[in-house]
Task: structure prediction
Amino acid sequence: MTAADPIPPTIEWRDGAVRMIDQRALPGRLAFLEARTVEEICDAIRTLAVRGAPALGVAGAMGMALAAVTGEDADGAAARIRATRPTAVNLAWGVAKGLAAADPVAEAVRLYADDIARNRRLGAHGAPLVPQDGRVLTHCNAGALACAGYGTALGVVRGAAEAGRRPSVWVDETRPVLQGARLTAWELDRLGIPSTLVADVMAGSLMAAGDVDCVVVGADRIAANGDVANKVGTYGLAVLAHHHGIPFYVAAPMSTVDRDCPTGAGIPIERRSADEVTSIEGHRIAPAGFAAENRAFDVTPAALVTAIVTEDGVLRPPYRFDLAAVTGL
Ligand code: MRU
Result:
């Protein structure tokens, strides 16, 4: 946390362990969790104590650092960490970085600092996309909590605020596990950026009323053709934005691009427990035993994405990531 940053580090290497904000406890409590073994970090990832694509990238590398420190077999640890969550390509990317490094601890610490620096650059590139007094709608949490720090979609909002554009944010609550209501709202409150929580299903009427100037979301994986996987509900927002002529921006570091995945059809979509849909924070809201489907992500076709904001600049269609230069990753 710098003097200017009211949000503590999401994940960091401290005294031979991985220290994370326990995101399951927010917004009620700012609690921290320590992982000292590969199994403990796998558990933190599976249960969403740490989540969000860039944060998972750092968690993957730090998991490999734990394997090195505890003397666990590196290949076995890599496979176990990668298997925890399939959609965010950053996780496998961070694991690969740790696996290839001569010093996995130093590499994990480097990736942590690098993520924050890249997000700050991304935010500065994206800031001009937000009009003066612009009303931004966002989904899920693509803020500091989803990264080592600063945020991607919320990084664009922060960049706009730092540039004096006075943005405000419509915060989708983001069912089923409410990352918007619990995490994005908590962050924006700490940052002092005006924001309003809305039920996911309200986006259409907000847009129809002319109350949304742009949509900015994060990404868990971007295919080589620009198709984007992100939290379920993102695709619906993109369709609505297109219908209403509202710009739809995706903000993500280049570590989220999967050049080996030609289109969104090849992106694995995580299926999570039905309990997340039939209950809210342990309180059942559906009849006992009722079937529920829980696809955690959806894919937005590149044709609906106005621009992709990265640390290297703002990219416009046609997206050809298979041809894009790799910048120091
Ligand atoms: O299931 P989650 O909370 O890990 O999903 C997170 C998202 O979908 C984010 O929008 C995405 O990871 C980008 S985070 C900068």
User: Anything to note?
Assistant: DSSP finds ten helices and 16 strands in the chain. The longest strand covers residues 17-21. The mean pLDDT is 96.
